[in-house]
Each structure stands twice: as C-alpha cells, then as structure tokens.
Here is the input.
Amino acid sequence: MIKKVWNLLGSVQLVIPLLIVITLVSLLGVIVPQGPVPPDFLHKGLRAAIIVRFGLNQIFTSWWFYALLGLLSINVVACSISHQFKSVGKALTPHFHKTADDVARLKCTAQFTLSGDPARLAEGFSAFFKKRLFFAALQKTDSSIQMAARSFFFKEIGSLLFHFSILFFFAGGIVGSMQGFSFVKEFHKGQTVAFPEWPYILRCDWFKLDRTADGATSDYQSKMTVLSLDSAPLFTKIIQVNHPLSYRGLSFFQNSYGEQPDLIDEAQVRVIGPGMDSSGAVMTVPFDTEVKLGGSLSMVIRKFVCDFVIGSDSREVSSRSDKPNNPAIKAVIFKGADTLFNSWSFLNYPDIHQENAKGFKVAFLDYTPQYYTGIKVSKNPGNVFIWLGFALMTAGILLVFYFPHKSFWIFIEPTGDSSSRVIAGGSSSRSLSAFQDEFKHVLDTLQRASKKGP
Amino acid sequence: MESAHPGIELSFFWWAFIAYSITCLLYVVYFGVEKKWLARIAVITMAAGLAMHSAALIARSVHIKHLPLTNMFEYISLFAWFAGCFYFVYLKIYKQHILGAFIVFIVFMLMVSGSLLPKDATMQLVPALQSYWLQIHVTVASLGEAAFLVAFAANIMYFLKTGLSSGSRFAARLPELKALDRIAYKAISVGYPLFTIGALFAGAIWAEQAWGSFWSWDPKEVGSLIVWLVYSAYLHARFVKGWTGTRAAILSAAGFTCSLLTFFANLILGGLHSYG
Here is the structure.
C-alpha cells in the first residue's frame, strides 16, 4: 500500500495534470476578483452565488489551493528522489560500448595512430580526463582497451537543486502564514507604538510628502526611530517605498499616507474684531497652540473636522467621512479668563455660522493638513526559506542549462609496431555543431599531451 | 503625474515601424519568388529598422532621464527591440532567412500593438518604481520573453509545415521539422532561465523590498506564474517523457500565448502592475 502511494506520488504522470490543474485554478483566480465580497453581492444572481458558495473569491488563500501546491511539492520531490538520484547513480556507473565500431558510428568521431602501447596510452587518457573533472574508467579486453569518460554530473545536481527548491518555496509560504503576520499601522507625527513580542518601541518622528509642480506625488517618506522600553533611541532610519527598516525580527515598510481627519498642522485665518483694522488680520495659527492677537487678546484653534456634520439629536460635531469635503475649525478668542468668541468657521462657506459675539469674526482661509503615515509592520520567518529557494533554483537552472552532459569513449588497439590505433567518439546534450568543435579541441589536446608523454 | 509629450524618439519609432513593415513586405515577396537578393535587402532594411529602434529607445531614455520601462508602450517597444536583436543572432547561427522572416512578422505585430498604445513619456516615476530592480526585472523578463518569441516563430513554422500538403512549395522551403523542434527548444532553454530569474525572482525580491511581501497573487504575477508553469511543463515533458514534435510545439505556443495574454491582462484587470 505504502509502495503504491509512493509510486503514485513519485509518478511523472502526476506532474503534468497537477501543473495543468494549478494553471487553470490560477487562471480562475485572475478572472474572478479576489477578496471579500460586498454585502449585496449575493443578490447578483447565479454567478455570484457560485463564487461565494465555492469560495472562488478567495482561491489563493483557500486550504484546497494550498493542498494542490503541497501535493505538487511532494510529487516533485518524490519524482526527484525516484528519478534524479537514479540518474546520479547511473552517471557514476561507467557506460562502455561493445565494439570500436559502435564508437565509430557516433556523431562525433576521430581516428588516429599514436606511438606507445595501449595500456600506457589508456592510463594517460584517463588521467587527462580526470584532471578535467570527468569520471573516467578503463575496460580491458584481449584485443583492446576502452576508456569511458563522462563529465561531472552538474546537470543531474542542477535538476535535484531545482526540484528541491520548490519545497523551500512551499515551506517558506507555510512558515510565513503560520508564524508571520503583517498589518498596516497609521502613525501621526510623534506617535509611539509598541508591538507584541517585540521588546522595543517605534516612534514616527516626521512624515514628508514631496509633490511635483503639477501636484503628483513624487516621493513620501517617514523618519522612524526604534526606542528601547525606557525610551532611549537605538536606531533611526528614513523609510521610503523600496527602503524599509528592519530591526530585530520586525520589518517596517512605507505603505501609504493620508490626511488626518481631525488634525491639522496650521490654519490660515482672517480675524476681524473691535480695535482691529476693518479688513482684519490674516494670520497663520498652529493647531491647538495659543497665539497673541494683540493687546491682551489671544486665540487658539481647538478643533478641526474635515467633513463637518452635527448630530441631529446629540448636537455633537463630528466628521461625516475621512475626505476633506467640508473642512471646519473651531476657533476660540479670549481675554484672560473671558471667552469672547467660540465658534466653528468653514473653509467652503466663509459667511455662515458666524457668531458676531462681541464683534469678532474668524474666516477660515486655508490649512496645512497633517498627514498620517501608513507603515506596514511585517514579520515573516518564512523569508529565509524563500531566499534559499531562490538560490537553489537559480543554481539548479544554471547547472541544467549551461553545464551540458558530455561523454567520450576511446578504443585503443595495438597495431603491432609499437604504436596504437585510437578510435574516439563523443556525445553531448550540447548542440552538435558546438560539441563538434569542443570534441576536436579535446582530441587535439589529447594527442599533443600523449606525444609529449607522461 | 509629470509627463511630457514624446519628441524626436517617436519619430525614430515610426521610422523603425516603416523599416520593419518594408522588411515584412520584402520577405513576403521573397516567399513567392525565391530571389536571394530580396532576402539580402530585407536584412539591410531590418538592420536600418533596428538602428532606428535603438535610437528611439536611447532618445526616450535621454528625454525622460530613466530607462523607458514604465508603461505598456515602452515595454512592448523594448520587447520588440530584443526580438529584433534575436533576429540577427538566429540569422547568424542558423543562416535561415525564413526563420528570420517569421521573427520579423511577430516583431512587426508587436510594433503595431505598441503604436496603438498611449505614448506619453512619464518624467516622474511613482515611488514604487524608483528602484534599480525596475531595470533588472523588466529588461531580463523582456529578454526572456523575446527568446520565447523566437520559439513561437519556430512553432508557427512547425504547424505550417505539418499542416500544409507535402507537395506545397512553401512547406518544402521551411526547415525540417526536427530542426524547427530543436530551434524552439534552444530558444526556450535561453528564455526559461531569463524569465525565471528576471520576471519571477527579481520581481518577487523587488516586491518584498517595496511592499513587504514576495508574492501578492496580483493578476500579472499569476499570469507570469502560469507562463512559467506552461514552459516548465514543456521542459519536463521533453526531458522526462521525451515529448518532441507537435505536442511540444503546442505546449510551447501555449506558453507564448499566455505571456501575451499576461501582458495585456492589466488593461482589463488592473492590479499592482497597472502602470505597465
């Protein structure tokens, strides 16, 4: 039974159907949008019902897709063990031709005569090939000596590495999904955050957004500092897309940014009031910071909402959305302990909702938004397997494609006058024309070396 | 997005387009009348086209201050240029004008597709593209796909040779089936390592650096994986099961068709590769 299962798993016949099934399922995953479906999706007919019923919107995270990939990995490794190890074993066993005529019938052949007895020449030939990392062996008969030389089994090793690398990719995926995590955390300037099982604190020092003249985003970056638990700075890096920060097991990637819905850096306002110029004073007021208006008057911007709405029952002000559809500030003007003005001003509607209490008016002209920076926090202990997979598969592919198999056979027969007749032949997985050149070069070198003697 | 209307580089592109179309015409006539001098002129016009195409790529690089690899027009132009280079490589190796002619036809089709795409030059790269991995990932992947294109040209010739009657004069001029099978295999054995390392590995490493994840099951990623799986199936079927001939040619042609579908997929499906 076990043997039957092993034979099935190690069967090459299983690889092709599995590859086809995985290809078709992947194709389905491309065609059907992946991710959670909207609440009203099920009302959209049979197609939607099928997608939800069979989880076709979550193919790439489904257990059965992982099972298919797992089966492919096991199949590939079992095939490698069954076939590739056999190939290596076969490569180590010398293969001899029966007769010199068999060698003479190969596509690359040469015949020549060399002085010296066959045994001495065969030893010389064998040493020549061994020096070039070939496996060489001799077979003696009454009338001749045959030398068989085969190139080092780079191709077989490459094939093994290639197939085993798939197992590393799969292991990386499994370890990553079981022991890793990733989520996006929004930081605002100066915010510190601690993460579970990470004995440090991360602080966002600042976020910077660069735009081109036409307003497109050219770059965005965050200065992040790793602090010890007692707030001592340990490591600082400005992170950007393509330049993450990695520190003791966690990595932080610049992921996104956006405007804070309830915070701004500063607002530009026009203040009109008793004792002031009739056109008022235009000033830039930092958020939540008291500024002097002149004399003993002071002003502070207490609140900001990006999309003003007031609750019909609670009468509480909040933001309807995260979009700056109706930005408003709540400005307060006071003199000592007396509040002289305390009201909302609107960027889009400068003339409404103004309480001319004690003759003051605040017009909201502009503001500098405060951005949050979206940092992707990631831990993936499976990455080491993925890197190993890359290395093994790259090495495997290079060995398979660029280190072709080469074999040489040489029959050496005595001619009876202290010289020997040499019949050589070769074969390779290289193209015939390329191997013919190499064969000629090797045989020329061999002849010159033999003439020189040991 | 800061962009600029293309300048002289587009003129070079159109000159290359004209030269490639003349080469195609010359080869069509060559198929009919079998005059060697026609094929020789076709090589000259192809060389002129490739020179113009090179000038177009260089001028665009100078204009936009980075390699032109960031949108579909630029990718298809680079892809066609690599395939044009392979035309000369294969002409030198196999000395078969007829193989070159099929490569040129496909190059010309790529140029036609490219000519229909928006050609505005992007001066300012989006932050995700500001990485040296852009050059490695895109150039190596397109070089690999250009090698697949050569295999596809050999596959089409294979299908024509098997499909046409044995008495057909055109079929007789096509290389032997064994030779076509071998050409396709050799091209795939050049393209497969390049595609694996350039499209999949370099792309995954870059994605990890930019987004913190090697793989996101984005439509283009899945498309590239499908291309890789099909060519892997081709190589396994060939090495292990000894598949050659028609079955191998069908698998190889399916691989190239998948790579074309993957290229155009983001026009419909979007995703992380929506820019190109």
